[in-house]
Each structure stands twice: as C-alpha cells, then as structure tokens.
Amino acid sequence: MKRWIRKIALGVCLLTLGLGLTAFAEEEDTILNGVTIGDVDVSGMTKSQAMDALASYVEDVKEETITLKIGDNTLEAPLASFGLTCTYEDAVEEALGIGRTGHVLKRYKEQKDLQQGGKAYPLEWTAGETQVRAYVESNCTQFDQEAKNASLTRENGAFQFVAGEDGLVLDVDASVRAIMNYLDGGWDEGEAVELATEITEPEGSAEELQYVQDLLGSFTTSFSTSGSNRSLNVNSGAEHIDGTVLYPGEEFSAYETVAPFTAENGYAMAGSYLNGETVDSMGGGICQVSTTLYNAVLRAELEVTERSPHSMTVAYVELSEDAAIAGTYKDLKFVNNTDYPIYIEGYTTSDKKVTFNIYGKETRDPNRKISFESVLVSKTDPATVLTEDAGQPLGYKSVSSGRTGYVAELYKVVTVNGVETERTKVNKSTYRGGNRTVTYGTAGDPVLSENLRAAIALQDEALADANIAPLIPAPAPAQ
Question: Which of 38, 153, 377, 393 has its CA at a distance of 20 to 30 angstroms from the CA of residue 478?
C-alpha cells in the first residue's frame, strides 16, 4: 500500500514539474529568455536570427577604436585594422540547448537559473598578428624621434656647445605582443594600451666636443660667373651642410644632407649635366658645393667612401678634383676616421665664393705637409661629323663645337721637412668628349643637292664647303 502511494506521489510530482516546464518553455526552436552572447540579448531568437544579430554586432564592434599610448602621444586605432575575428557558432548552439536538452531535472534547473539570473556566454575575439604588425609599423612608428646628438655652433670664430636631446624609438615586437594580449583577452573600453618604447641617448658631451678647435682642411671655389638661380643653389647647399658634427666612425652623405631639391628647401632651376648635355634642373650647381667639400675633406685626410666625377669637365677645379651629385647613384660620402669629433663649416661670400672648413683636433706631425696634383693621362680631341637637314636650303651651314674628352688622375703628395715621402693616387676620372657636328641644308637644286650629299657621305668637310661656296654671297666691300 505504501509503495503504491509513493508511486502516485512521484507521478504527481513529475506531472507537476512537467506542467511547469511546459508553462515555462517557449517554442523549442528558439532560445529561452535570459540568454546573452557577448553584449547581445538572444532571448526568443531562432538560430538564424541569433547568428545574424551576432554578425551585425561583430561588424559594429570593428568600427570602434582602442587607444594606443606611445610615450606622450596617443593614437585612436580602428579595431578593423587588426584583422579582428570572432567565433560564436558554438555559443549559439549551446544557447539553443540550454533548458531544452538532457533529463527533465536538468532542464528544470537550467530554466529556473535563467529565470533567476540569466545566462551569459562570452565571445572569443582573435586578432591577426600580421595585421597588427602592419598597423604598428605603418602608424605607430611615426612618433619615433631620433636622439639629437650634442653639437656645436660657431659664432665670431668661437665654438659654443649645444646639448643633445633624448630620442624615443618604438619596440615593434613588444608593442605587437601588447596589442595581441589586450585583444585576445577581451578589452576594457576606455583603457589605453601602452606600447613599449625605448629611450635612446644622444651622443657627445661638452668634454668630447671641447677638442674641436683646429682647422684640419679648407677649400674655396668661385662661382662668380653663375646667374642668380645657380648662386642661390650653391648658397642653399652650403647652408644645409654648415654646422654638421660628425663623431668618430660616422659617415656623411652629401646627397642626404642637401636633398630634397625643391623650392621649399631653398633651390631653383639652373644648369646641370645630364647624359653629356647641359640642361636646366632643380638644384643645378649643387655639384660645386660637393666638389668644394670634397677638396676640404681630402686636405683633412678623412676617409672618402664614395665619389664620382662629372660626365664632363667643370671649370671651377682641376681635372679629378670634382665630386658630382646625381640622384642617389652619384654621391659624396666620407667617414670621420679620426679619434675626435669634427665640425664642418660651410658658407658663401658676397664676391661669390664658397668655402668649407673642417675643424677637429690636429694630431698630425706639424712638419708633414700634403698637397694634390692633377695629372693628365690622355686627351681625345672631338671628331667632326657631317649631317644634312633636308628642311634647310642649299648654302645653309650650322656648326656645333665639339668637346674634348679627358682621362686624369689625382695624386696626394706628402712631404716631411720639405722632402717628398709619399705619392698616392687618390682617383682616376674619365670625362666624356663630344663630336663637332656640321649640318648642311640640302633643299634646292637636285644636282647640287646630290653632290653635297656625296660629300657628306664621304665626311669630307672641305668638299662639302666647296659645293656650297657658289651659293654663299660674297661679303660686302668695306666702306
């Protein structure tokens, strides 16, 4: 009798629980009330509705930004830049099953839990390391600041010390890790991510720079025949170089120092060499600056690591004493191979001369002197080339002067107490020559034209001149 009563009681209990479940439950293909995934309330949603809602939410999140702190600077970075992805399919499946799967007591408990406190499923976000690194390298390194080495100024013949400044460099690898950890672990809105930076200390001190007192090398050239634009370019180039301090072992690039050749940087259009011709270009004349500096460097006996001659000869120095700048393929570079800092002074004067002085600590024997000699190796006179212009009449003659080609060498000569002890070749330079071109007009009488063309084919200038001589009017008699 008792066993029967217990069975009836259990049955009533299960029936009551079942009725409760039926009353609590909604449609079996929707998520029960009280369920959230991330910040999305998916209560009452079907699987497809939940998936769409979460997809929309993820896209909205990618439009948000996080704050990156780089030293004293901040940067608002879009989350979309970091290749951010989010998986939520498993969370949706679990949400659909909560309170609906398993034995009746499990379902009942889950539904009661939902009713009392709800159920929240976290979203798992993952950033793409490749995208994070690309963003950091492209955007965050803009705040890098090179340390400013201690330097000097020269006023009224005296040097004044200028203290250096610390630099700031982003640690890219550590910064990528910081962003990855922040995003992979979920992030707190309003919290900035501090990126890793390194302080770089400036080079040089007052103690080191106090040794810069002695004139190691000096050279001057004249640009007195230059027009206003070329003079402007020479002056600008000297100003860009003036005040440069090089520490032991440091390399100097003339191109990097004087470029870019723009009006904003102090340059104008003027004549320069290009492919064996003289053309107008921005910064024309800058090679006289590099040439003057080159000769001062030679006299200071610094180590020249790159130097190129011009394609044609220049008038302001001897053969092999020039140093051209052309784009990035011709540059003047040298290294401070002394044990002390050096200071480069550059200036122009009102009588159109440009000078470079190199100061440092003199350690050379005072009885040792150096000089430089330009030696001609070979000379190639221009050839004469006859051509025709069928658009010009018979009797027309135009002559373009040729250009002599040269090969030369520069030697450094060392004397001690007036006795030569050393002669060293510094460089060997080749300068392009150019043909002398004579052009004759061949339009007119067919017979005369054919005779003239025959002379041109033979490259016989005397014969060509004889053919057109009857067509050239005799000079008027003197009055």
Answer: 393
Cβ neighbours of 98 (radius 10 Å)? 20
pTM: 0.68
d(CA 229, CA 214): 34
Kindly report the backbone phi and psi dihedral angles of residue 137, in degrees, each rounded to the nearest multiple of 5, phi listed first. -65, -35
Q: Is 295 exposed, middle or buried (0-12, 13-18, 19+ CB in 10 A)?
A: buried
Query: Residue 209: enclosing H or E segment and its boundaries?
Result: helix 206-209
Cα(231)–Cα(423) distance, rounded to whole angstroms? 36
Q: How far is the C-alpha of 193 from the C-alpha of 45, rounded, in Å?
A: 36
Percent of the residues in the chain that have a pLDDT greater than 70, as a whole number: 91
Gap between the Cα atoms of 53 and 38, Å rounded? 11
Phi, psi of 252, rounded to the nearest 5 degrees? -110, 135
- Please tell me whether the peptide bond between 260 and the residue prior to it is cis, using omega within 30 degrees of 0: yes
Q: Pick the closest to residue 452 from 399, 387, 401, 400 (CA basis).
A: 387
| Confidence (pLDDT) at 203 | 86
Whole-angstrom Cα distance, residue 194 to residue 178? Answer: 8
Alpha-carbon distance of 279 to 286, in angstroms, equals 14
Look at residue 344 and give its three-state secondary structure.
strand
Question: How far is C-alpha 312 from the geometric centre of its chain's CA atoms?
Answer: 30
DSSP state of 142: G
pLDDT, position 191: 84
C-alpha to C-alpha distances, 351 to 59, 223, 231, 286, nearest whole angstrom: 69, 9, 11, 18
Strands (DSSP E) found in 204-276: 214-222, 244-246, 251-253, 269-274
- What's phi and psi for 288, nearest 5 deg? -70, -30
Query: Tens digit of pLDDT for each residue in 97-146?
Result: 999 888 898 988 989 989 998 999 988 888 899 999 999 999 999 999 98
φ/ψ of residue 106, rounded to 5:
-65, -45
Token pair, residue 174, equals 């550590």
The phi-psi region of residue 190 (left if phi > 0; otherwise alpha if psi is between -120 and 50; otherwise beta) is left
The answer to whether the Cα torsion of 87, 89, 92, 94 is positive or negative is negative
